[in-house]
Specification:
CATH architecture: Alpha-Beta Barrel
Number of domains: 1
Helix content: 40-55%
Distance between the termini: 31 Å
Shape: globular
CATH topology: TIM Barrel
Strand order of the largest sheet: 1-2-3-4-5-6-7-8
CATH superfamily: Phosphoenolpyruvate-binding domains
CATH class: Alpha Beta
Structural class: alpha/beta
Order of helices and strands: HEHEHEHEHHHEHHEHHEHEH
C-alpha cells in the first residue's frame, strides 16, 4: 500500500500549524525506484538536499513531482539563500524550501518575497517588502492564493544566527526554522559534540523561541534517535530523521556483522563514519 495518508503542501502547513509533529527523512538518492518504497514507510514529507548533494535541476523536478504525487510533500534545501534559486525550486515542484546558513533578517525578507509573493519581482517587490507600500487588492488575493501551500524554512546553524534570532523570527512570512546540528556544533566551537551542554542549550533556545512565536521548529539529525526524540519533546515538530544512504549503510552493516558473527568470520571490517550533510 502506498501513501496511507496523502499530504500536500497546504495540509502539511495546517498539520504543523495545529502543533502536530510531522516526520520525514532526507532523500539523497535520485532513483525512480525509490519514491514508492519511501511512501511505504509512514513518513509525512521528504527533505531533498541540493546544498551538499549533486542533484541537477531536471532530476530535482521529477523527484519533487513524483513524491508530491505519492502524498509526500517535497521540501528542498537550496544551495544558498538566493531568492532566484528559491523560485526555480518552486517552479520545479517543491512545496517548500529550506535556505541554508541564515544569519540576518534581511536574508529572510528576500526569501519571503520569492516564496510567498512570487512571481512579483524587482522594484515593486522590494518596495512592498521594505516599506509599508501595499499592493492592489486583486494582486494581493492572487499572490496569496497562488502561494498558500508554500513553506519557507531557514537553517539556523551558527552563533551569529542565534544572536540575531529574535529579529530573524520576527520577519512576516517566515514559517519556521530547521536546525543544522553539524554546522551549529562547529560554529559553537564544539564540532560534533552533540552531548555538550552548550550545544543542548543552543538547541533548546532555538526551539523555544521559534515555537513561542507560533513557528515551526525542525531539526535534521542522523545520530542518536533518542537524542532526536528528546528535542521533539522540547517542542520540535518538523522532524527530519536521518537520510536514506545512512539508514541503508547502518542496516546493511549490522546485518553483515551479524552474519559474519554467526559464521565465525572477521567482523572488524567496515567504517562507522557517517555521511554528514
Amino acid at each position: 500500500m502506498i501513501a496511507a495518508h496523502k499530504m500536500d503542501g497546504f495540509k502539511l502547513k495546517q498539520h504543523l500549524a495545529e502543533g502536530k509533529r510531522a516526520y520525514g527523512t532526507a532523500i539523497l538518492t535520485a532513483s525512480p525506484l525509490w519514491p514508492p518504497l519511501v511512501a511505504k514507510t509512514g513518513i509525512d514529507f521528504v527533505f531533498i538536499d541540493t546544498e551538499h548533494i549533486a542533484i541537477n535541476r531536471a532530476e530535482l523536478s521529477w523527484m519533487c513531482r513524483t513524491y508530491a504525487a505519492l502524498g509526500l510533500p517535497p521540501v528542498v534545501r537550496i544551495p544558498s539563500p538566493d531568492p532566484y534559486e528559491a523560485c526555480q525550486v518552486l517552479d520545479g515542484g517543491a512545496v517548500g524550501l529550506v535556505a541554508p546558513y541564515i544569519e540576518s533578517p534581511e536574508q529572510v525578507r528576500a526569501l519571503v518575497g520569492a516564496v510567498k509573493w512570487r512571481p512579483l519581482k524587482g522594484k515593486r517587490l522590494d518596495q512592498f517588502l521594505q516599506t509599508d507600500t501595499s499592493l492592489e487588492p486583486d494582486l494581493t488575493a492572487y499572490l496569496e492564493t497562488r502561494n498558500q501551500k508554500h513553506l519557507l524554512l531557514i537553517n539556523i546553524e551558527s552563533r551569529p544566527a542565534i544572536e540575531n534570532l529574535d529579529d530573524i523570527l520576527s520577519v512576516p512570512g517566515l514559517d519556521g526554522i530547521l536546525i543544522g546540528p553539524h554546522d551549529l556544533s562547529c560554529s559553537l566551537g564544539i564540532p560534533e559534540q552533540y552531548d555538550h551542554p552548550e550545544f543542548h542549550a543552543a538547541i533548546k533556545t532555538i526551539i523555544t523561541k521559534a515555537r513561542s512565536k507560533g513557528l515551526i521548529a525542525g531539526n535534521h539529525f542522523c545520530e542518536d534517535p533518542k537524542l532526536h526524540a528528546k528535542w521533539a519533546k522540547d517542542g520540535e515538530n518538523f522532524i527530519v530523521r536521518s537520510n536514506d544512504l545512512y539508514l541503508f549503510t547502518r542496516a546493511l552493516r549490522q546485518e553483515i556483522k551479524e552474519m559474519k558473527t554467526e559464521l565465525g568470520d572477521d567482523t572488524t571490517a567496515g567504517s562507522e563514519e557517517n555521511l554528514v550533510i
